[in-house]
Amino acid sequence: MYYCYFDTLIGELLLAGEVNTLSLIGFPKGVMRRDPEPDWIYNEEPFTDVREQLAEYFSGERKDFDLPLTIAGTEFQLSVLEALQKIPYGETRSYGAIAKQIGRPRAVRAVGAANGRNPIPIIVPCHRVIGHTGDLTGFGGGLDTKEVLLRLEAENSGGLL
C-alpha cells in the first residue's frame, strides 16, 4: 500500500492505495482521521491524478471525479456507497432517501452506519447526506468539515446552504 498527504482547505488528507487505485482518504481530524500503517510506503507518484482532481474540486472547477477506486465492504455497504456517488454535486439527500433508493426503506440506521464507514470520503460524497430535518449530522471529518464541503459545493453550483 502506498500513501501520501495532500494539503487542502480542510487540512492535510491522507491518500492511500495501490499503484493504480485509490482505496482510502483519511481526514486530518475526527473519527475518520487515519495514520499510515507501518508497512505502507510513502510515494506521491501513484496519486498524481487524485491530487490533481482534488485540487480542481477544492478550487470549484471539478464537480465529478474520474478515478479508479478500490472499495471494500459488504454488499449492503457497497450499495450505499454506490448510491452516494449518484447524489449530484451541490445537492444533498437524507439517510431515508438513500435507504429508499437502494430498496431498503427501513434500513435508515444501517445506511447511516455504512455512510460513516466510507473509506473514500469526498470522492464518494458521504458529506452530501444529511438528517431528514435538513440538519447536518455526524461526519467522520467533523461537522465543521462537512459544512465547509457543502458550502464549497453550494457556492460553485449556484445553490444555497
Give me some keywords for this one.
161 residues; alpha/beta; 4-stranded mixed sheet; two-stranded parallel ribbon; 6 strands; 16% strand
Model description:
The strands form 2 sheets. Strands 3-2-1-4 form a 4-stranded mixed beta sheet, covered by helices on one side. Strands 5-6 form a two-stranded parallel ribbon. A hairpin with a 2-residue loop joins β1 and β2 (about 10-15). α3 (about 95-100) packs across α4 (about 110-115). The mean pLDDT is about 90. The chain is globular, with a radius of gyration of 15 Å. It has about 160 residues and is of the alpha/beta class. It contains 5 helices and 6 strands.
Strand and helix layout:
Blueprint: E1 2-8, E2 11-17, E3 22-26, E4 41-42, H1 48-58, H2 75-84, E5 93-94, H3 95-101, H4 108-116, E6 129-130, H5 143-157
Parallel strand pairs: 1-4, 5-6
Antiparallel strand pairs: 1-2, 2-3
Helix pairs in contact: 3-4
Instruction: Please tell me what the overall shape is.
Output: globular
> In this structure, how is the largest beta sheet organized?
4 strands, mixed
Structural class: alpha/beta
Number of helices: 5
Distance linking N and C termini? 37 Å
- The portion of residues assigned to helices is 25-40%
Percent range for β-strand residues:
15-25%
* Count of beta strands: 6
Q: Give the SSE order as H and E letters.
A: EEEEHHEHHEH
Instruction: Give the overall average pLDDT.
Output: 92
What is the rounded Rg?
A: 15 Å
List segments where confidence is low: pLDDT < 50 over at least 5 consecutive residues: none
User: Order of strands across the widest beta sheet?
Assistant: 3-2-1-4
